[in-house]
Amino acid sequence: MLTATAAQAHARAASSEEAVARLPASLEEFLAGVGTRAFRFAELGLRQREDSLDAVQDAMMKMLSYRDRPAEEWTPLFWSILRSRIVDVQRRRTFRLRWLMPTPHLDKNGREDGPLDWADDGPDPARTFDGREAYAKLSEALATLPRRQREAFSLRILEELDVATTARAMGCSEGAVKTHLSRAREALQRQLEDWR
């Protein structure tokens, strides 16, 4: 009979073996599998299709220089690179808006007014109208969160990364990830209660 500690160790070993079995065979396979999710993550942060596509492409190009790294490092490394690229674009955009082209269509928080323009607006048989509407509401609610909360929610919940990987991707402690995620969930719950 296994003790609780031995059972936990056995479960961790089995989980580790499953993770190794799911590792992509090549960096190209990894990038092909992460592209759509990366675009959605970037679009949540940037809210513009072209900037999002550029950020994902830049992150993928940078990943090519890390092809010799072990496959288990690719996931946190890619999300960290993409997150940094998104932050860079946001900073440049803020600087440009503040100093070069003040625009009246921004709200008091510097966010653009109006709904998000999603890249996958074509017909998709897997999504019903209700599913698209729910996703749009979630996206709008996510856009109102502070950046770190939005990143923690997107990486942990939408991308299903574990806490340690999310912390490495965000460049913070696991405790900070948990705090950001908790605050994001509370804020989203308050916002989405009225929609139900």
Which descriptors apply to this entry?
196 residues; mainly alpha; Arc Repressor Mutant, subunit A; 2 domains
Structure overview:
The chain has 196 residues and is an all-alpha fold. The protein folds into 2 domains: 26-110, no CATH class; 127-196, Arc Repressor Mutant, subunit A (Orthogonal Bundle). It has 8 helices and no strands. Helix 6 (147-158) runs antiparallel to helix 7 and helix 7 crosses helix 8 (174-193). The radius of gyration is 19 Å and the shape is globular. The model is unreliable at 13-20, 99-106 and 114-127 (pLDDT under 50).
How does the SSE layout of this entry go?
Layout: H1 4-21, H2 27-46, H3 49-64, H4 74-100, H5 129-143, H6 147-158, H7 163-170, H8 174-193
Helix pairs in contact: 2-3, 2-4, 3-4, 4-7, 5-8, 6-7, 6-8, 7-8
